[in-house]
């Protein structure tokens, strides 16, 4: 049964609200319990009145005691059943003995949990109820009619394990009732034979209907769970598609604006150098061209959704070299050193080995590159430093990056947009970022320097 397209499917834990079958099953259990109570009261009244009139006080106490024991044992089973039924998201087929273990919410594991039966506890309870009933029937024949609800108990406790055994027990109870009538009354009337037989047949038929209803309820709940999972998957797919569309839009805007502007800067700087090749301005124009070319390449990589790939170390070295050249062109004596895999001897930013980068996840490589670029930009623009050291290391389970400068330091200033962005990139890659002063502040208010430290899992996720 497939729910209509407009049906609002709630999570699995709310499936009892999506179908009336669990309510029907619960009503059937309540009717069974009420039937037991009613037949027990009728048997008490019909057996106690003649015994009291005859002054058979020992028999009265015997009947009352057996009836009280029967009621207590049966009540204990119904209490256990109610608790398990309340825990079950289906209002599941807990038989009157306390039945099936309450299903735990969630998918196929819940359906498997419903199929588990606490056989040892159920059989002990059913045996105690049956023996107490035999004692009552031995005292007075009117307790024989309690066999009708007992048919259901045997079918629901034994039936899930062995239907033939359950039917055999029902037949045995039916024969026991008939023999009880014969033993108490000395003869067998039509009612004493037909009544128990019809009751047994009705019990078997109603138990089969109960099982069909319960199977239908489980099917409906499974369908609801699958539909909910499908809708969740579709929602995630739609969110992912929306993110891709937004990324595509940003890529187009980046290509049509920033990338084109950088290309224009490159062309203009080259034209200026060709017109005035010997003037001092030419050196600065060359640096402008190099910076524009580097940034144009990065903008195109973003448009094409390319990460740093296998050239991470080379890109880190290039970022350090560009930062140093830009600072020198602007009149600063900033020296930038790089230490890392295949970085060349002595930390010189102009040399890179040929062995290649150690393998790592794309998310970690992107985070390292972007944080390096942002930290170097802060050094260039704000630190007023004379020395900057970038240290990149690849460990077994994580990748670390440290960017140190001997500049003015941060002090008590609040974090700006650049640091906030670096921290967000670290969080996205499941890593951590710390930014702190490198030295203790001097009494005269001298420079303290800054250290930016990044640590991210090498292959993504928490290491």
Describe the protein's topology.
Layout: H1 21-53, H2 57-87, H3 107-114, H4 119-139, H5 147-158, H6 163-185, H7 190-275, H8 281-303, H9 312-329, E1 335-339, H10 362-383, E2 387-394, E3 398-405, H11 417-428, E4 432-437, E5 450-457
Parallel strand pairs: 1-2
Antiparallel strand pairs: 2-3, 3-5, 4-5
Helix pairs in contact: 1-2, 1-7, 2-4, 4-5, 5-6, 5-7, 6-7, 7-8, 8-9, 9-10, 10-11
- Please indicate the percent range of residues in DSSP E strands (runs of 2 or more): 5-15%
Distance between the termini: 45 Å
Strand order of the largest sheet: 1-2-3-5-4
Find the structural class using helix and strand composition.
Answer: alpha+beta
Largest sheet: 5 strands, mixed
The total strand number stands at 5
Give the overall shape, derived from the CA principal axes. Answer: rod-shaped
Helix count, DSSP H or I runs of 4 or more residues: 11
Mean pLDDT over the full residue set: 75
The helix/strand order is HHHHHHHHHEHEEHEE
Low-confidence residue ranges: 1-18, 89-119, 351-355
* Cα-based radius of gyration, to the nearest Å: 42 Å
Helix content: 55-70%
Pfam families: HisKA_3
Region (Disordered): 86-107
Transmembrane segments: 21-47, 59-80, 117-137, 166-184, 190-213
Keywords: Kinase, Membrane, Transferase, Transmembrane, Transmembrane helix, Two-component regulatory system
């Amino acid at each position: 049964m497939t729910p209509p397209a407009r049906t609002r499917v709630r999570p699995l834990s709310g499936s009892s609200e999506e179908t009336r079958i669990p309510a029907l099953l619960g009503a059937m259990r309540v009717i069974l319990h009420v039937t037991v109570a009613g037949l027990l009261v009728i048997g008490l009244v019909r057996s106690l009145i003649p015994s009291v009139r005859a002054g058979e006080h020992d028999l009265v106490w015997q009947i009352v005691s057996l009836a009280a024991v029967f009621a207590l044992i049966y009540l204990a089973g119904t209490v256990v059943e109610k608790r398990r039924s309340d825990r079950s998201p289906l209002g599941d087929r807990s038989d009157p003995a306390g039945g099936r273990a309450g299903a735990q919410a969630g998918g196929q594991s819940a359906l498997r949990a419903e199929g588990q039966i606490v056989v040892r506890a159920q059989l002990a309870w059913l045996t105690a109820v049956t023996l107490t009933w035999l004692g009552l029937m031995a005292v007075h024949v009117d307790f024989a009619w309690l066999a009708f609800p007992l048919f259901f108990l045997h079918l629901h406790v034994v039936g899930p394990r062995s239907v033939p055994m359950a039917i055999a027990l029902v037949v045995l109870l039916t024969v026991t009732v008939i023999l009880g009538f014969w033993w108490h009354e000395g003869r067998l009337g039509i009612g004493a034979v037909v009544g128990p037989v019809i009751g047994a047949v009705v019990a078997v038929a109603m138990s089969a209907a109960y099982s069909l209803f319960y199977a239908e309820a489980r099917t409906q709940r499974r369908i609801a769970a699958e539909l909910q999972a499908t809708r969740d998957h579709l929602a995630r797919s739609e969110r992912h598609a929306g993110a891709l569309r937004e990324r595509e839009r940003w890529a187009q805007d980046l290509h049509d604006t920033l990338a084109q502007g950088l290309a224009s800067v490159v062309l203009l700087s080259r034209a200026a150098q060709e017109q005035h090749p010997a003037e001092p301005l030419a050196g600065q124009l060359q640096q402008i061209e190099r910076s524009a070319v580097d940034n144009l390449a990065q903008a195109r990589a973003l448009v094409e959704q390319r990460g740093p790939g296998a050239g991470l170390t080379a890109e880190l070295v290039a970022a350090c070299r560009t930062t140093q050249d830009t600072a020198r062109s602007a009149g600063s004596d900033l020296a930038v050193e790089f230490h890392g895999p295949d970085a060349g001897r002595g930390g010189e930013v102009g040399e890179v080995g040929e062995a290649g980068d150690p393998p790592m996840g794309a998310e970690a490589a992107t985070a390292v590159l972007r944080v390096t670029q942002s930290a170097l930009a802060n050094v260039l623009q704000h630190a007023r430093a004379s020395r900057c050291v970038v240290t990149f290391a690849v460990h077994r389970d994580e990748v670390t990056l440290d960017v140190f400068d001997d500049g003015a330091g941060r002090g008590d200033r609040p974090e700006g947009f650049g640091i906030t962005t670096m921290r967000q990139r670290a969080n996205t890659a499941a890593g951590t970022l710390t930014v702190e002063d490198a030295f203790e502040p001097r009494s005269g208010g001298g420079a303290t320097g800054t250290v930016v430290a990044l640590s991210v899992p090498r292959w993504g996720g928490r290491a």
